[in-house]
């Protein structure tokens, strides 16, 4: 068996320990004689799996008691609709546009009411996070929406916006569990699992209890109401059962590692290796303003499209996979999520050094 270093933005690398354990349990989960994939979501064994997953996640993030954890489906994109459908009272949401995912959420909200773009970094290809200290928040805004880590552009909020008392809603898909987060600062957090915590098909929602309402937009389907899933403890219908089981294993892996403070330190170390190299290279350049750099997604370019393409080709041959930048921006992007080992980043930098030497005349 040979595994590559996988720098994909998602679905992305998972901890090897988790994959090995899942493989060992594949045919017979803890003496049940069946795979978790084959197991009723109403069984005792599965109840333990989902309850433990929630308890471990609560531990990791120190989630306050007045927040509910929901394991849902439909990907992060479904939250773009569920957020306005469930949180609109006045029918107004304020959005900070820091990239394609924020923009998609903003456009989706417009289907259900008024979405205001209160700040944007579109003027410089989303290479920075706008000043969020004094935003023109709408008086009747039901919430302020951010995409906290911008997967495509490689930016991350280092301070949360001043929402002037409004509820903060945040898409944490690409930085979920990469560092500690003060959940109490948010009304709602959501994250697709397929970057930092598990397989695609699971989206995790952490929502303050008072925001789980009956009086949501009238047309909201039963399946798209937070209340439906909160009341049924994420078991209203068949959940993405196997995916939740893997997420649970990742939560345990994080706890064994020492929790999110420890994870953050490792992530900072990995990112520093790559950014330090980029800052000193004559060939490769990071594309993001230094203060807003993501620890998770690191886009870079040579400035020469042919050289970029050659780099992607040669790096793949060297066992460094998925370094091609997002189709909308080109260049390269290294996604170095929680499960990417330090050695993977060291190998990438060493490859970049060699490439630079070989292609500099
Ligand atoms: N939000 C962010 C920040 C993302 O990076 C992505 C996907 O890459 C999405 C939302 C969309 O996620 P999904 O494909 O699960 O709908």
From TrEMBL:
Question: What positions does the entry give for pyridoxal 5'-phosphate binding?
Answer: 76-77, 101, 151, 171, 194, 237-238
The protein's required cofactor(s) are namely: pyridoxal 5'-phosphate
One Pfam family of this chain: Aminotran_5
**GO terms assigned for molecular function:** transaminase activity
Q: Where does L-glutamate bind?
A: 42
Name the reaction it catalyses.
O-phospho-L-serine + 2-oxoglutarate = 3-phosphooxypyruvate + L-glutamate; 4-(phosphooxy)-L-threonine + 2-oxoglutarate = (R)-3-hydroxy-2-oxo-4-phosphooxybutanoate + L-glutamate
Alphabetically sorted, this entry's keywords are: Amino-acid biosynthesis, Aminotransferase, Cytoplasm, Pyridoxal phosphate, Serine biosynthesis, Transferase
Localization, UniProt: Cytoplasm
**Residues bearing PTM N6-(pyridoxal phosphate)lysine:** 195
EC numbers: 2.6.1.52
Residues in coiled coil: none
Q: How does it assemble?
A: Homodimer.
NCBIfam families according to UniProt: PRK05355.1, serC_1
Report the protein name in the record.
Phosphoserine aminotransferase
Natural source organism = Lacrimispora amygdalina
């Amino acid at each position: 068996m040979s595994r590559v270093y996988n720098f994909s933005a998602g679905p992305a690398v998972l901890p090897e320990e988790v994959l090995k354990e899942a493989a060992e349990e594949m045919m017979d989960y803890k003496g049940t004689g069946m795979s978790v994939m084959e197991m009723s979501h109403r069984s005792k064994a599965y109840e333990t799996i989902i309850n433990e997953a929630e308890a471990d996640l609560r531990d990791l993030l120190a989630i306050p008691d007045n927040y509910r954890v929901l394991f849902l489906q439909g990907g992060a994109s479904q939250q773009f609709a569920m957020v306005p459908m469930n949180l609109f009272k006045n029918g107004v949401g304020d959005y900070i546009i820091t990239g394609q995912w924020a923009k998609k959420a903003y456009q989706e909200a417009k289907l259900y009411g008024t979405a205001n773009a209160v700040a944007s970094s579109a003027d410089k290809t989303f290479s920075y996070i706008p000043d969020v200290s004094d935003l023109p928040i709408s008086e009747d805004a039901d919430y302020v929406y951010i995409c906290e880590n911008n997967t495509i552009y490689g930016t991350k909020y280092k301070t949360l916006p001043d929402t002037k008392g409004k509820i903060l809603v945040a898409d944490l898909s690409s930085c979920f569990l990469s560092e500690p987060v003060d959940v109490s600062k948010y009304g709602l957090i959501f994250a697709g699992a397929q970057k930092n915590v598990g397989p695609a098909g699971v989206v995790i929602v952490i929502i303050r209890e008072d925001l789980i309402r009956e009086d949501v937009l009238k047309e909201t389907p039963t399946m798209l109401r937070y209340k439906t899933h909160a009341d049924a403890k994420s078991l209203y219908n068949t959940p993405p059962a196997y995916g939740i089981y893997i997420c649970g294993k990742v939560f345990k892996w994080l706890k064994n590692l020492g929790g999110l403070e420890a994870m953050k330190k490792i992530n900072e170390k990995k990112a520093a290796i790559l950014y330090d190299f980029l800052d000193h290279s004559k060939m490769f350049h990071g594309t993001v303003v230094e203060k807003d750099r993501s620890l998770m997604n690191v886009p870079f370019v040579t400035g020469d499209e042919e050289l970029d393409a050659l780099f992607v080709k040669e790096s793949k041959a060297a066992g460094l996979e998925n370094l091609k930048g997002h189709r909308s921006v080109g260049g390269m992007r290294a996604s170095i999520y929680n499960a990417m080992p330090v050695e993977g980043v060291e190998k990438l930098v060493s490859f970049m050094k060699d490439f630079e030497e070989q292609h500099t005349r």
